Amino acid sequence: MNIQWYPGHMTKARRQMQEDLKLVDLIIELIDARVPLSGRNPDIEEMGRGKGRLIILNKADLADESQNRQWTDFYRQTGAEVLAADARQKASLKKIRPLVMNACRDKIRRDAARGMRNRAVRAMVCGIPNVGKSTFINSLAGRTSTKTGNRPGVTKGKQWIHLNGGLDLMDTPGILWPKFEDPEAGEKLAMIGSVSDDVVQSEELVLKLICLLQKDYPGRLEERYGIAADDSMAPADILEAVAKRRGMIGKGGIVSSERAAGMMLDEFRSGKLGRITLDRDVRIPAEKIR
Length: 290
Description:
Blueprint (H helix, E strand, L loop, with lengths): L7 H13 L5 E7 L9 H6 L4 E7 L6 H12 L4 E4 L11 H8 L1 H9 L7 E7 L5 H9 L17 E5 L3 E5 L11 H10 L9 H15 L3 H6 L9 H11 L11 H14 L20
Parallel strand pairs: 1-2, 1-4, 2-3, 4-6
Antiparallel strand pairs: 5-6
């Protein structure tokens, strides 16, 4: 598979973000915890050089807990403040303000030296599509400040949200990068729903997902679907077996692998297949993430 998706509005959004960076002190970058490397837009890292950094590994409740810890440690070693969280749960965001203040401590000291005290920290919230930026902001604000949705592209333009406690947030549209050099990165982004389903062949995508599950999470398919899907079983045979298990058989006894693929993709995205992290190699030099 060679998945590429970069609609025209993302080019405009990227230019606007680059312009708006001069207005902020801090970048709060949300990354889907299930794809902590593949889901990181290299353009954001490049554009934000010199700014304070806070990385939120969002949807951590859907990702492998041990992998969350490893990736949190990994990104801290790059100099960023890091928090694994579920933006839908306000309790998991209680550490945000101290982390923001720590990430901006040099800027706060400079302001104080100039007699500028209690000036709000201005932060840009950014990330790839469907990573949960608007949900994150709404949870922090305690109200519905921005539109939310479970599909990429809901946020169309920048929005400022003023919070109590000296923190102003700029919401931005989710953007990808023009070309996925690594085909696996494009596939993983499609699996989590950050690439429009309209440009994806769901059956091919789910066959790739089954391969990953067989390698890294053996037993999950059997737990969920009652299929002994060991390494010797072809992914296409597993998909067909799942379709039969779920009664997805049409006229003439034809098995609907397409329906089964759509169902499996939905169950992965919703966490019904368990906590799964698709990027598992944390032994990557820091320069590789820039």
